[in-house]
Design a protein that fits this description.
Layout: H1 10-22, H2 27-38, E1 50-51, H3 55-61, H4 67-77, E2 80-84, E3 91-96, H5 135-158, H6 160-178, H7 182-202, H8 212-224, H9 226-254, E4 265-266, E5 273-277, E6 281-285, E7 297-300, E8 305-308
Antiparallel strand pairs: 1-3, 2-3, 4-5, 5-6, 7-8
Helix pairs in contact: 3-4, 5-7, 6-7, 7-9, 8-9
């Protein structure tokens, strides 16, 4: 594959980076955009464009949170040609002007404001009322695609046979591989569906043309593919991070409960008293013990009194 433009001056590069910074694009995202602009040929097709089928893989390779964040960055940068598409992203592909000559009909992001609108996490496009803008039509179709993808998984969940054939093995897999409680394994499945599978199917143009049976076969094959296995891993990692955060939040809330004194804390549910020791960790305090007198005080189980840890 041969690049359209083989040289890039330092001045051009500085100007481009300056424009990105003026649009409040972070340094870490700038580095990712530069890689895309210079060319990640492994993710291009024969026309030297990045097709929507590769958005997920590109987002993982560049460590974007998900494909939606990749699309937002590409649009906001204004440095790529964008080919419109009837999917949740509003584009079927994008390309670097270093690798492909700018087309007159491309949906360039130059007209976007410096900050993308907030709202529904899937509504990543700017709606304008001028007659030359076609974004509104794409948003309408994107919303239909998104709703169809959500409804597809809702139908699976409502059908006992489909649920047992597709969802139950996924929950079992999360539970067995991670040693999770059933509730946590189900939370992994919810993340997999809502954050990964729904956006993926909503972004595929052929999804709206597929029958329910065809979609079921598609989903089954996807989950066995390399891309599907990456999604399962991402859901597992996300669930693990969420559990760690939940535990930290719970411990933080526990340790903010100091009904007796500031040097100890009481668990709200059990009523048990504790203090934190740098060597022993969490130490239980007997119910009849007086309040802990200081940060260095240690409970002596033999004397039944508070003592100092100082030598």
């Amino acid at each position: 594959m041969k690049a359209h433009k083989t040289t890039l001056s330092v001045r051009e590069l500085q100007k481009t980076i300056g424009q990105w910074k003026s649009r409040k694009i972070t340094d870490s995202t700038i580095a990712k955009l530069l890689e895309l602009m210079l060319g990640m040929t492994a993710y291009m097709n024969e026309d030297a464009v990045y097709p929507v089928e590769n958005f997920y893989d590109i987002s993982k390779a560049l460590k974007f949170k998900n494909a939606r964040y990749l699309v937002e960055a590409v649009r906001l940068s204004g440095a790529f040609g964008i080919v419109p598409g009837d999917n949740v992203y509003g584009m079927s592909s994008f390309y670097s002007y270093l690798w492909k000559e700018k087309e007159k009909t491309d949906d360039s992001a130059e007209t976007l404001p410096a900050k993308l609108p907030q709202g529904d996490i899937y509504n990543i496009y700017t709606i304008q009322d001028n007659k030359n803008n076609t974004s509104s039509g794409r948003i309408s179709f994107a919303e239909k695609s998104l709703e169809a993808a959500r409804n597809f998984f809702h139908l699976i969940n409502k059908n006992p046979m489909d649920k047992m054939r597709i969802f139950t093995p996924l929950i079992d897999g999360f539970q067995q591989k991670e040693g999770l409680a059933r509730e946590d394994a189900c939370a992994n499945l919810v993340y997999l569906v809502n954050e990964l599978l729904v956006p993926y199917f909503a972004s595929q143009e052929r999804f709206m043309k597929s029958t329910h049976v065809g979609r079921l076969c598609w989903l089954s094959n996807l989950l066995k593919s390399a891309g599907g296995l990456r999604m399962l891993k991402d859901a597992t990692d996300a669930g693990r991070r969420q559990r760690v955060q939940n535990l930290a939040d719970m411990r933080g809330e526990q340790r903010n409960n100091h009904p007796l004194c500031e040097f100890e804390w009481t668990d709200k549910e059990s009523g048990l008293r504790f203090y934190d020791d740098p060597l022993e960790g969490m130490v239980n305090i007997p119910d009849n013990a007086p309040p802990r007198p200081g940060a260095g005080a240690e409970w002596n189980v033999l004397s039944g009194k508070w003592g100092s840890c100082e030598l």
